């Protein structure tokens, strides 16, 4: 079997791995990327045409600088590859004043200096007549620099530009083992083995399989698309129905955005602030069937009540995977004690918008550069008591 030698190997070229590959290649590092599927495939976590791109991130005040770095990098990447990768039509967080979407977004915006606009109840009602059943207390936070982004084109562009910068890429190649010792790294595949100084493992829902001991739980979470009851209406076009998260009474929340050129109205459910979904033990065993009742009944009933202008039966749906960490934040940084293994995962359902910024951070952490932002809250070792590393 052929043995290749390089400085860094990136295992898994989804959102996080393709960004790391690009940012390492941009520094002139010798880097090889290995992906078991095609580049930009629909079997992991980074497919389905669009993702919300929020900047005043309710999940943690440390996140806005990472989203801002993604925006900067993807604007550059879009210009280089001749496409719009982030559509900045703004985004809205709605709910009672103390809810996570409202209070969390305001806290993150204040800490990171992100300009947001607070909307009182009447302004919210006037602005979003599509929301059928706003709570009496519901208010809004408008994040004007936010919007939506396009996962498959972003993943493909990151890999393509990395290759132009000299990265070598093996698609359709399963990594069967990552062996890390004080002397170096050996990445095994059925067709080639690679020896390197360092490795970034960014295998998404499969991270716990490649690097055992990390406290990660993959969950099956479908993506859903809907159409207005009145096909002639433009009230659910992106400009009028921008990206949003809406916390409703009873622990149910919605996230979604309106339609545009090449994409439909997209909606998903949250339960108690977490993207709804079914946990499973082994990412290779995720249920890829669509269940016309089990997958649809709950969201249809919720859509009928919340958005009366939409046909509550989705026009299409597609399974996707989120991978939860215990505290809902990503795992980005060194694992083990060799200084050679960096992991990237635990996306917890809100990672895509950060992928560009995380790629830059991963390159810095891998090479021992000073990180451009505080990364301690993402350190995988914060779960040391739960893990074997
Ligand atoms: C329904 C849904 C809605 C979401 N909405 C949003 C949103 O609106 N905004 C947002 O920011 N985020 C959102 N997310 C989260 C976001 O999509 C994820 O955070 C992001 O895609 C995670 O990227 P990743 O690189 O960790 O995983 P992936 O992109 O899945 O990458 C992992 C890669 O590793 C490869 N791999 C696995 N094992 C191996 C192996 N042994 N050898 C080689 N390759 C391997 C896989 O094939 C895959 O390509 C959503 C997720 C879902 C499922």
Describe this protein's structure.
- With 389 residues, the protein is of the alpha+beta class.
- The protein has 2 domains: 2-47 and 151-214 and 327-383, FAD/NAD(P)-binding domain, CATH 3.50.50.60; 89-145 and 217-324, D-Amino Acid Oxidase, Chain A, domain 2.
- It is built from 8 helices and 21 strands.
- The chain has helices at 15-25, 64-81, 100-112, 121-127, 151-164, 207-210, 297-306, 355-367, and strands spanning 2-11, 31-34, 51-53, 86-87, 91-95, 117-119, 139-143, 147-149, 168-170, 177-181, 184-188, 192-201, 217-226, 243-247, 252-257, 265-271, 274-275, 278-279, 316-324, 331-334, 341-345.
- Strands 5, 6, 7, 13, 14, 15, 16, 17, 18 and 19 form a 10-stranded mixed beta sheet that branches.
- Helix 1 (15-25) packs parallel to helix 5 (151-164) and helix 2 (64-81) packs across helix 5.
- It is globular.
- It binds flavin-adenine dinucleotide (FAD).
- Flavin-adenine dinucleotide is lined by residues 11-17, 34-37, 44-46, 51-52, 174-175, 202-204, 206, 210, 221, 223, 268, 275, 320-322, 345, 347, 349-353.
**Which percent range fits the helix content?**
10-25%
Global shape: globular
Give the rounded overall mean pLDDT: 96
The level 1 CATH classification of the largest domain is: Alpha Beta
Main beta-sheet annotation: 10 strands, mixed
* Ends distance: 31 Å
Summarize the helix and strand pattern as letters: EHEEHEEHEHEEHEEEEHEEEEEEHEEEH
The DSSP helix count reads 8
CATH topology of the largest domain: FAD/NAD(P)-binding domain
Report the sheet-strand fraction: 25-35%
- Gross CATH architecture of the largest domain: 3-Layer(bba) Sandwich
Ligands, ions, cofactors: flavin-adenine dinucleotide
Structural class: alpha+beta
Flag low-confidence runs. none
CATH homologous superfamily title of the largest domain: FAD/NAD(P)-binding domain
Structurally, the number of domains stands at 2
Organism: Kribbella italica
GO molecular function: flavin adenine dinucleotide binding; sarcosine oxidase activity
InterPro entries: FAD-dep_OxRdtase (IPR006076), FAD/NAD-bd_sf (IPR036188), MTOX (IPR045170)
Cofactor: FAD
